[in-house]
Structures are given as structure tokens and as C-alpha cells.
TrEMBL record, chains A, B, C:
Recorded name of the encoding gene: pyrB
A Gene Ontology BP annotation from the UniProt entry: 'de novo' UMP biosynthetic process
Natural source organism: Acidaminobacter hydrogenoformans DSM 2784
Classification via Gene3D superfamilies: Aspartate/ornithine carbamoyltransferase
Presence of the UniProt keyword Transferase in the record: yes
Family from the record: Belongs to the aspartate/ornithine carbamoyltransferase superfamily. ATCase family.
Entry EC number(s): 2.1.3.2
Positions annotated to bind L-aspartate: K83, R165, R227
Record keywords: Pyrimidine biosynthesis, Transferase
Entries under PROSITE patterns matching the protein: CARBAMOYLTRANSFERASE
Involved pathway(s): Pyrimidine metabolism; UMP biosynthesis via de novo pathway; (S)-dihydroorotate from bicarbonate: step 2/3
Domain annotation Aspartate/ornithine carbamoyltransferase carbamoyl-P binding: ranges: 5-144
Record protein name field: Aspartate carbamoyltransferase
Role this protein plays: Catalyzes the condensation of carbamoyl phosphate and aspartate to form carbamoyl aspartate and inorganic phosphate, the committed step in the de novo pyrimidine nucleotide biosynthesis pathway.
Binding-site positions, carbamoyl phosphate: R54, T55, R104, H132, Q135, L266, P267
Amino acid sequence: MNQVRHLIEPEDFTLEELMHLVDTGLTIFDNPAKYRKVCDGKIMASLFFEPSTRTKLSFDSAMMRLGGQVLGFSDANTSSTAKGESLADTIKVVNDYSDLIVMRHPKEGAPKLATHFATIPVINGGDGGHQHPTQTLTDLITIKRFKGRLDNMKIGFCGDLKFGRTVHSLIRTLARFGNKEFYLISPDELTLPVSLKRQLEKQGVKLIEVRYLEDVVEELDMLYMTRIQKERFFNEEDYVRLKNTYILNRDKIRTAKEDLIILHPLPRVNEIAIDVDTDPRAAYFEQSKMGVYVRMALICKLLEVGPYARG
Amino acid sequence: MNQVRHLIEPEDFTLEELMHLVDTGLTIFDNPAKYRKVCDGKIMASLFFEPSTRTKLSFDSAMMRLGGQVLGFSDANTSSTAKGESLADTIKVVNDYSDLIVMRHPKEGAPKLATHFATIPVINGGDGGHQHPTQTLTDLITIKRFKGRLDNMKIGFCGDLKFGRTVHSLIRTLARFGNKEFYLISPDELTLPVSLKRQLEKQGVKLIEVRYLEDVVEELDMLYMTRIQKERFFNEEDYVRLKNTYILNRDKIRTAKEDLIILHPLPRVNEIAIDVDTDPRAAYFEQSKMGVYVRMALICKLLEVGPYARG
Amino acid sequence: MNQVRHLIEPEDFTLEELMHLVDTGLTIFDNPAKYRKVCDGKIMASLFFEPSTRTKLSFDSAMMRLGGQVLGFSDANTSSTAKGESLADTIKVVNDYSDLIVMRHPKEGAPKLATHFATIPVINGGDGGHQHPTQTLTDLITIKRFKGRLDNMKIGFCGDLKFGRTVHSLIRTLARFGNKEFYLISPDELTLPVSLKRQLEKQGVKLIEVRYLEDVVEELDMLYMTRIQKERFFNEEDYVRLKNTYILNRDKIRTAKEDLIILHPLPRVNEIAIDVDTDPRAAYFEQSKMGVYVRMALICKLLEVGPYARG
């Protein structure tokens, strides 16, 4: 056997590999019936050391739609961890119960650590505020499906750009794909971290920071919304004032392009008004759906089955 | 595709449809091996916003015996709801992860609401004190199996007739099937709600209300027992006194017909004495078993597979 | 149909049956692909009235690798038990949802009780401090794989020999296989219970009790480690002093045989130092892996499928 591959962060894959994954996901989306047995007899261990229904169900659905089975836990309280077992031991044991591990963990770096003890592929399903690479894949496949390309776009990120790991990961990845201009729309308290800005600017990326969506909305090909969490603010008044500024509604996209797409990693609380849902530019539920297909492609790649079967 | 069907309350189906479901369930019961692949490749999302092992496992078993797979959660604490997501959003997302949704929710009307956002079938697995239509289907298939018919019976309901949603739903449905006489056996505190009585009497149904089972037991073709819950009473003494009056034991069915059947939706606590279990008239465990088969029929109907496949 | 078999304690099977199970497990291990459909269409109910991820996942993996499906719960809080249902009723109901029950319960004797109400096979997945027969099977298959035999060995048990149910069960079973000499290495506070010692000595077994592993390590063919739990001690100082004495490390096995195997039921906390893991004599992760294969053999035996299919 060749060396086992893992997905801990998007940088683990080359641009070509990412592009191929996205295209494979779209191929599966076009004809899912063709792939419904490719994981027959395979087991995915789904280890959620912290709950995340959305991510868990998306992976479960992906594996089941490929004909595989799923075991695991959705909460560390019912796991051996509660008895004081080390992560290394848990991984070594589960490694022999399954063919692939998906792992979500509250601690940064835990999935990376897991790869040292696993002889089967490990997928990072989110590690604290650090990485969530399958969210990035989900974003990419949605963009590709609706825009037909991954580069040469005017892209706006709106809301909490300081703490949102999905934003950091997606900006970095879109920059790798050659996008040269990003609109960063956030309150002063929640701007993109300086270190990331430096890194992007070194790569020749132009960052346009603004406070209000209305100032730039008509420029955008894609708008990525995020949630502003109360606990990020020092005081209640700032939160209430800013929260409303960053709620997207029909009025705020009145002047936007017709082929704009609006993404959001979900779950949403109230950062996008319900009336936007029926706007043809709203793509966040389609985005969630596409997440299943790109995860199907990823599972196939790591298990080397179906479209990724070896000659 | 035709319009998607849901099951939120028994009235969603015509009498003919209910009868056909019951008969299909009996057909599957007679030859389950014939149906063990009809849901191959299908996924059921089992969304239990409040725990109910019995209902969940019955549905899981039904889907698995048809060759389908199951994903979901058994407790809202591990779901995105905990992050403040609306039910509408949860349903829209899960809609793309699965082919069929089974949903239990503490709030009345939640499954009905879900049908507004789903493009796949939704089954109400119980919504608060409101509806639990697959329990009614379970009751019907059991009656049909043991009595050979769904009409023309003398039927007694015993215990808490005020709060028991399974009782309300079953009485209404049996009245639709043309049953004209019901014996209502309960303490004064727990009689059938007046509005339901009015409704039934308008349909020409005769309701005979008594306090003691012994007064009518020899008349009955079927006896439906329910649990009397302590929290329904104002004071402990009333509860203790009445509880014992409404515990079914061998002595109380001494004079009953030989072909009486005794049903109970389960779980039971102590409202039926253990010594009744071995009486040939006790049908409540068979009832629980039949629940799997009628759910198999229901899943087939809503997914239009197997016996309900379209020409 | 013949009488249904259960596994509640190792004594439920004859020596020949145990040996055959172990050998069947090894056969499946050598060629798992051959068995990956033998439980197609079968359902295992996995009823964990107390959490135990390791045991649950091992059984789930075994059933899935045979092509079967799994339903159940991993925590009694989400079960009907929380509504006051008796174990008897739960078993009678689940009996109709599945083809095989695996059950873990905090109360001794609960799985035995379950066999009175089940018409399908019941496997004890651990009942309090009492029995855990599939751990014993796991130990046996590991010994057979690495030593090629189950008898005629010098075997040491180290750590908590007083409360460790896996130790009691394994010693009794290895004595049945004709092993005549055991080294018992423990602090005075945690020696093997007198009643078990008497029983073994009556069978002609020689027990050599020592306090320090170093005194006997070079004699051993197999060393079985267990965890020393803090709550077993009257005072903190005794615990701290003894804990360190019974931590296995590289230094303590310096003089041991080259073909010694070291077992541990896992999870481990710190009773085996990490540096032992890479020693070729450490077999505890292989042991955990072998547990899946012997459980596959057991499931096949109880369901009478695959290698145990009838005529």
C-alpha cells in the first residue's frame, strides 16, 4: 500500500487535488446512483469529541450514500475519554475498528496528532477555532457549481472576520487559486487578524476593508456571511448596535449583481433575514447540500475507491 | 415527481389508504424476506428533539429491515438547535442529507411546520401531547391481525382518557371506520375531553362512561389500557386511591370474553400487573411488534418503493 | 428452531466451543472479505445501559464487518428506562426489533435476567463488576494468535487482582484450559479474593503470590496488566506509593523472555508507560484488534450464519 493520506487542513492537498476533488464532487452530484456501492463493506468512524450535528450528519450522509457504514459517538461524555484515556490510545484502538476516521475535537491540533497514531486516513471535522477543511471544500464546490470557476472573482467577506476560522481558511485557499482582491466588511473590533493580512498582501493580494456592506455590495460576485457572536464583545451596547448593522436583508442586496451568490457556513441565527432565503442569489442551503457531495468525493479519494480506485 | 406525502396526523390519509397500509403491513409481516432490499440506498433521518427510545428503535428497525440506512440524533442537546438554529433551517438542511424524515418534537405542530420546508416526506413521530399517528397505525394493525376487522367492535378505553393523545387519536380513527359504541372507563378527573365527546356524538357515536372496568368488561372485544400519571392529580391521596382502581390484573378480566384483546401503547409502569402478560388475551407485546411492520409499510408508501412502487 | 444460545459468562460454552470460537475468529482474521455478507439483513440491538465506547464500538464494528446493521442506545438516559419501564419489558420489545441483543448494564445479573424474556440470543457486554465474557474471548484469541496455544503457559497477573473482573474470568478460563500455575503480582490490599483462590487450588492450580513484578518477570510467557484505581484505597499516600510500583515500564521487562506477551484490557490510564508500546512484546493494541474478530465469530455462532450455518 502507498502512504496513507489525511486531510487536516486545506494545504494538505495541492491546488490540482483540490480542483479535482471539487470536480469529482460535481460529477457525483450529477449521477449519484453510479457511486452508491463504492464504499460497500467500508466503515467510517465518526469521533465527535464535541457535538456538531450538522457536520456529523453531512459526513454520515456522504458515507451512507456511498454504501458504507458508520460507527462512533457524537459526544465525548459517552467515550472512553471520560475514563482518562489518551487521544493516542483512542485512535490506535478505533483504527482497528474502521477504515477511515472523521474527527471533531475542541482542541487545536488534535486531528493532526491523531495522524501520528493512525494507519488509516484521518479527516479533520473541525478542531477548535483552528481548521475545518471540509467546510472550505464545501465552499469551493458551491462556488464552482454556481460561478463555473474558482478564480477571478470579486469576493466579499462580511461579519466576524477575526474569529471565523471558515473565513480564514477560505480566503487563504481562494488566494491560492489566484484571486487577487477581497472585500473585508466588518466592524473595527472584528477585522481580519493582522498576521493573515500581512501574509495575503505578501502574496500580492489586495484587501479592501470597509465597515458597511452597502459601500461595496454592487461590486461583488460572491458574498460570504458569518455570524457575529455576542461573546466577542466587551459590552452589550456595542453588540446590539453592530449586530443589526451586519444582518443581511433584501434591502442591502438591492443594488447587488444579478449573479451574485450569497454563502454562509450555517447554522445561522439571525445574521441573514428570512426574506433573503427566497432570493435567487441566496445559495447557503445549496451550499449545505453540496457539502455532502464534496465529502463523498473526499471519502472516495482517501479510501481509493470509485473515481479514485487504483488501476 | 408527484406531490410529496407526509403523515402528520391520521386524517392525512383516507380510510382506504389507512386500510391499505394496515393490510400491506400484514403482508410484509407474513413474508418480510421479500421486502428486505426495497429501501436499499435510501436514508431515513431520525430527528428526535426529545428522547423516545421505543419509537426511535421501532422506526430504525423498520428502515433497516427494508435495507435502508438511518442517521440522526436521539436528543436535541447534541443538535444544532442548541446553537439557536430555527427548526425551518434544520429541516432544510437535513432534507438534503436524507430521503425521509421521522421527527419527534416536544412542541405541538412542529412536524406540521417541518412539511413547509421539506421536499421529502415527513413522518410525525409524536409532537407533545398532540398527535402520534404511527401509534394509531400500530393499534390498527394489531386489531386487524387479531380481530380480522377494524369495525363493528365493542371497544373499551381505560385509565387516563383526558390527556392520553393515543386514546384520542385512536377513538377518532375507529369512529371513522364506523365503530358506533365506545366504553370510556376512567375516574371523574380523567374523562374524555368534552369537545371530543361532542364531536363523536355528532357523528352518531354512542359513548358509555363508567367508573369501574368490572361493570363493562364482559361486553368488550377490545380493551385499551393507558397509564395514569401521578402529576395529573392535585393530591397524593387521590392518585394512590385511583391508581389501584385502574391497575389491570387477572382478577379483573375473569369474566371477559375469550377473544378479548388487551392493548397498551407501552412503556407500561404498573398499570397492567405482570400476571396478565401470560394471559392469551394480552396483546400489547404483539402490538409493539406489529408497529415495526406497519412502519415498514408506511415508509414504503411515502418513498413509493416495494409494494408502493409506481408502475 | 433449536434452542437459542446466549453468552452471559464464559462457562456457558464448553472448552471445545471456546476453542472453536477462537479458531473461527482467527480464520475470519485471515480472510475477512469472505465473511463480509454473512449477516446481511440481520440487526444487532446494542443496549448500553451504561456507557462503554470501547466495547460498543468493537461490537458495532464486528456486526458491520459481517454486513449487518446496528440499532440501540449508548446511554440509559435516552432510553425508556428513564420512564420507569422494567428491564423485562424493554427486552421483550427490543426482541422484536432485532435478531441479537448485546447488553451492558451496571447491575450484576441483568443480562442473565434478560435471557428469560428474549427469544433471540443475548450477549453480556459487561454487567457491573461481575462478568465480561467477550473480554475473556478477546484475551484468549490474542493468546492463541501470539503463543499458538491456550495451555501450558506461565502466566502473570499484575495490579488490582481484587476487583478486576476481567482477571477473575480469565484466570478461571485459563485454568479450565489446563494451565496449572499463575503468578499473582499485587499489593496486599488488592490480592485475588480468597474464595477464588480456594476454588482454583481445589482444581490443582498453583498460585504464586508476590508483591513485585521484578521478582518473577523472567519466568513469564504472558503478563496481564490491570489498572489500579484510586478509589480502591483508604488513603492518598498508599495509592501514590503503590501506583508507581505497579506501573509497567521498559526497565521492568528488561529481563523478561523475548516471546513474552503483555496484555491489558484497555483503556489504560498510566499503568503502562508509553515507552513500552513500541516493545515487540506489547500486545495490548493487537489484543483490542483481535476482539473484533472473536466477536465476529461469536455473532456468527449465535445467529448460526457463515461458519456456523446449519446443514
